[in-house]
């Protein structure tokens, strides 16, 4: 028995399902999770000492690659000064200033501890600010596990084949209206019906949690116009896309200014962080300035701030996003060639350093088309890739991430493994 399997059966005795987040279980790919011991650059090492090229990147944060010296050194220095004070530090202002400078729609930002906290708090703020209660979310978008947002969510919810979650009060779920991603006429209908009741529309501007799906031309513009027309706030959940697709996130790429933005993952450089920000007049509704309460014992934690600051400093360098695009294109070219050569039903969806290989015969544009993918084929593909030393997210409905540490050699190795895995699918 492998060490990972041993560790997994031990973990299951004490932790529900043996994991602290369901997406980590390999249920959808008929396997058991690898237990990881260490990671460096684009490589991750399991408890049996096997090396893998990593495309999970801790589900998004590790854009520099694992254990980047700049992040590690910063953390070591900060540890000697203390790990948490429960009082303000200059580090919080530094990171906030960097986010404000990098994202043009954000005047002020509040740090929290996870993406879930960021979206939950942004919704409360939107409701407090507008005095309205209903929220519109898009089918297949995942915004963490807050009650209002666990309705038709993607990611682990889709992987496990459940519509939402037990324990979410029906009364609360009723306040969430779900509309298909990329469908403006459905959104218009909802706005007509509920006109003055909608507090906010929240979405992943480019989705990662049903796999990578990009907005149709004009979709985000129409969303911006509709929310303005009806006095609802537009919230971009950039927990995944922020500082990933561009330094200023998807909103920079598509040139759209949302009212509020949520962040996480990259801005914590691998430590637990989330944040939400937006226009000053809205953000000043938050306590202690305003009436919307939100707090946190470890919020703005100095270690997390240092990891975030040092990560953003490096990302700010000139060729970051060209570099990621170049690697993404290299991988895309190789995989598209393989798909053609092997002749399998698969489409490669990519934007910059985020990608998903859908086992589908047509383009994926929304949740329904994502769900029509062949998950059995994905499972075969995933397990063969793992055997070949490539560590992918264990679900069809997830984004893969390329980091600045992935070299052209690793991309080439991945393309070769992809060819073998596609052959296995074709069998
Ligand atoms: N929003 C998006 C777009 C996400 O991808 C995630 C997590 O994957 C979250 C929110 C929740 O973040 P966290 O897992 O840090 O709570």
TrEMBL record:
Pfam families to which the protein is assigned, alphabetical: Aminotran_3
Keywords assigned by UniProt, alphabetized: Cytoplasm, Isomerase, Porphyrin biosynthesis, Pyridoxal phosphate
The EC number(s) this enzyme carries: 5.4.3.8
Cell compartments where the protein resides: Cytoplasm
Taxonomic superkingdom: Bacteria
GO terms for cellular component: cytoplasm
Annotated TM spans: none
InterPro entries tied to this protein: 4pyrrol_synth_GluAld_NH2Trfase (IPR004639), Aminotrans_3 (IPR005814), Aminotrans_3_PPA_site (IPR049704), PyrdxlP-dep_Trfase (IPR015424), PyrdxlP-dep_Trfase_major (IPR015421), PyrdxlP-dep_Trfase_small (IPR015422)
GO BP annotations listed: protoporphyrinogen IX biosynthetic process
Subunit composition and interactions: Homodimer.
Protein's UniProt name: Glutamate-1-semialdehyde 2,1-aminomutase
Species of the source: Orenia metallireducens
Gene encoding the protein: hemL
